[in-house]
Design goal:
The chain is α/β, with parallel strands linked by helices. It has helices spanning about 5-10, 15-25, 35-45, 105-130, 145-155, 205-220, 260-280, 300-310, 320-330, 335-345, 375-380, 400-405, 410-435, 435-450, and strands at about 50-55, 60-70, 70-80, 130-140, 160-170, 175, 175-180, 180-190, 230-235, 245-255, 285-290, 370, 385-390. The chain binds zinc ion (2 copies).
Length: about 475
């Protein structure tokens, strides 16, 4: 066991918690994470890292590097918050700021654990005179613009040997699974305004275009592949019923199992928009907001994570933490907790109680099919990459909720974060110092790629992600 890594994290525990809590307090939305990025940059600079910022056209994206030459080990961090999930670190809903932003996906923990791992590895490299480069990738706007996709397009991952990352969760487990490729799109419809009663024949309703587009998508739904997903909201439908709206907007997420299938789905949705415009004598414009590729899983990295997790051992929960978790679970439907416990037990985990995960989920070599999307996908197409989760909130708590915000700002989240920093640091050390392990991870990556080449789906003329809201 690489005790120096564990010692470094232990010795810097309060520093890491304070950086995480500060980012939790800022709760900045995607592309606005100026203070969150600055805080991490200052920390990394103080530890001798060199910073390159403004990657992928995003002011809040940066790469922090230490060392030189090969091998190159990369850690991925995120730090964007979500709208409307502000909460105090209490086990019930009580916004810190009414209607405010919050870390409802725990990205304050995500970024700081990865940053801590990078600095701990640098410390050991320096101590033992180990050659190579360690990098922390400050990746903004995961929730809104899929920031990493823009960074991948900028080529900042091209020389990396292995990329390691994690995500706060309800369990201690490796994420040996793919994800769905995703397009985030808006469709603006334009018609002609008129008095809706006095002269409707002079108008053409942009809302009609939007509604018929959605109606067309509902007809598509039955005939798309079962793993595909399409979701929409009408983000603008007009101002008043007695005015024919000359402008309306549809907001879409289109997902499929891989890039190739996703391109077909987008084409179909575009054709439906064309049909809707033709039927209503309106016109439309498609706006590209972001995209993510499907994750290419890596069993070699996943196995490494699993053994390191086991060797370090899962954190223990205090009585207060268990009580906090139980009270929080009571704020939600009991079925949510029951379902989550059941699925944990099905995966072979033996829980001591049903509030906080106190065990490690057994490793499954069979690759699962995830139903979410993440921009880690794009990184995994260009570098062997894998992810794991540590328990940072109670079992059965809904994602992207006030409850996750709450846990991400108190001791339950902190414990999961420090455990994650140790796992990442130790796994990073193994990949840095073991060329065979790196080679195996690369071979596995090639097997999973199945001869496919990465294709960046960002239109070449778009230089930086547009603001989504
Ligand atoms: Zn999220
Ligand atoms: Zn997230």
């Amino acid at each position: 066991m690489e005790i120096e890594i564990l010692d470094w994290v232990k010795e810097h525990k309060s520093e890491l918690i304070s950086v995480s809590d500060e980012i939790w307090g800022y709760a900045e939305l995607g592309l606005d994470e100026h203070r969150s990025a600055k805080l991490q940059i200052d920390y990394l600079e103080n530890h001798g890292f060199e910073i390159r910022s403004g990657i992928g056209g995003m002011e809040t994206a940066f790469v922090a590097s230490w060392g030189e030459g090969k091998p190159v080990i990369g850690f991925l961090g995120e730090y964007d918050a979500l709208p409307m999930v502000s909460n105090k670190p209490v086990p019930y809903k009580e916004p810190l700021i009414e209607g405010g932003t919050g870390h409802g996906c725990g990205h304050n923990l995500l970024g700081v654990a990865s940053m801590g791992a990078a600095v701990s590895l640098k410390h050991v490299m320096e101590q033992k005179d180990i050659p190579g480069t360690v990098r922390y990738y400050g990746c903004p706007a995961e929730e809104s613009s899929f920031g990493k996709t823009w960074m991948v397009r900028d080529g900042v991952f091209d020389d990396v040997d292995v990329t390691l990352t994690w995500h706060p969760g309800a369990t201690n487990s490796v994420r040996n699974e793919s994800s769905l490729a995703d397009f985030v799109l808006k469709f603006n419809f334009y018609g002609k305004t008129a008095h809706a009663s006095g002269g409707p024949w002079n108008g053409r309703s942009a809302l009609d275009g939007v509604e018929l587009m959605n109606s067309g998508v509902e007809r598509m739904r039955e005939h798309m592949r079962p793993e595909c997903r399409v979701h929409y909201v009408i983000s603008y439908g007009g101002g008043a019923p007695n005015v024919v709206p000359d402008y309306a907007q549809n907001f879409f997420d289109v997902r499929a199992k891989d890039i190739a299938e996703l391109k077909k789905m987008r084409q179909w949705v575009q054709d439906i928009a064309k049909g809707a415009a033709l039927m209503t004598q309106t016109r439309f414009e498609e706006l590209f907001l972001g995209c993510a590729a499907n994750v290419i899983p890596n069993r070699v990295i996943a196995q490494t994570f699993h053994s390191v997790m086991e060797e370090i051992g899962v954190p223990k929960w205090s009585e207060e933490e268990l009580e906090f978790a139980q009270t929080m679970q009571q704020q939600f439907e009991p079925e949510l907790v029951e379902q989550a416990v059941e699925s944990l037990e099905e995966s072979g985990a033996t829980l001591g109680q049903k509030h906080l995960c106190d065990t490690q989920v057994p490793y499954r070599d069979e690759i699962g099919e995830g139903t979410g999307s993440t921009d880690v996908g794009d990184v995994s197409w260009v570098v062997p990459t894998a992810q794991f989760s540590t328990a940072c909130h109670p079992i059965g708590i809904p994602g992207h909720s006030w409850a996750i915000t709450s846990c991400s700002g108190m001791s339950i989240g902190h414990k999961g974060m420090l455990y994650a920093a140790k796992i990442l640091g130790v796994a990073g050390y193994r990949f840095l110092t073991d060329p065979d392990l790196r080679q195996k991870a690369r071979e596995e990556w090639q097997i999973q790629l199945k001869g496919r080449q990465y294709e960046c789906l960002i239109p070449p003329e778009i230089k930086a992600p547009p603001k989504p809201f």
